[in-house]
Structure prediction request, 319 residues.
Amino acid sequence: MKKILVTYKMFRDDFKELESLYDVTFPTEKKGFTYDEVCEMIPAYDAICSMFDFPIDKNLLDKATKLKVVSNYAVGYNNIDVAYATEKGIIVTNTPDPVTAPTANLALGLMLDAARRITECDRKLRTQGTSMRIGVLENLGVSITNQTVGIFGMGRIGKALAKRANACGMKVIYHNRRPLNIEEETTLHVTYVSKEALLATADFVSINAPLTPETHHTIGEAELKQMKPSAILINTARGPLVDEHALVQALQDKTIRGAGLDVFEFGNYPLPELMEMDNVVLTPHIGTQTMDTRIEMVHAVCHNVIGALDGTYPITQVI
Prediction:
């Protein structure tokens, strides 16, 4: 019987289909298997189900003598050496479909929150109580209606955000490695522009691109200086897409108005300076954290394994 290794703790019941077909190994510890443990175990396994923060690198892949598929529990796959896996004939898959809507919803939520100062006002009411200044010209925010959102990365999530922005009465411009075809642009009501034009024009800049060596620090000091002083930066993709030190400086200098961040450059937490800023909304990588989404992602992981090993399901292969 083929053997499957699951590196992380997740809802066990949702792996039942996988367990009915294969010999599946789950971690017993709360945080899942360590990298060293997986390196020892991997020679015996035909498939591995990895988490977005678990490294599937050259060292591990060289030990995986039977491995046929890496099924990543995430839309991002920068934790995996895809090129080397492909060279070894190992299929790499991800889970884009379940995460599209919730991540786009959060991006829109961060835009609204940062623009209308929702979290800031909530925090001040709780801490200042009746001493908080309240009046018709106090706590003024900005509207998103009739504003321009620039979407950097027009993949599934970017397209989903464009639809939501359209519904809010926003103009949508985008930059991507390749422009969409004219029919899709027309359907989505979006306009392709250069990166420079996007930064100079957009009232909101939303980062929705994958993290690759080419996109690392795609928003840095130079890019922040190209943005409007009234602009708000949103990042629900990957932290290192933004130079966080440069962002802190830009916010302190009022180079841009504010930011909404679900991901951070240096791990699970933002730089301390960001925590002190009222014009920054912070969430701890919750883009896909709904119960329904988590379950759907497990099913996608399982179907990718079954599809790769037995051809029963279509797979979402990373190319």
About this structure: The first helix runs from residue 16 to 21. The first strand starts at residue 3 and ends at 6. The chain is about 40% helix and 15% strand.
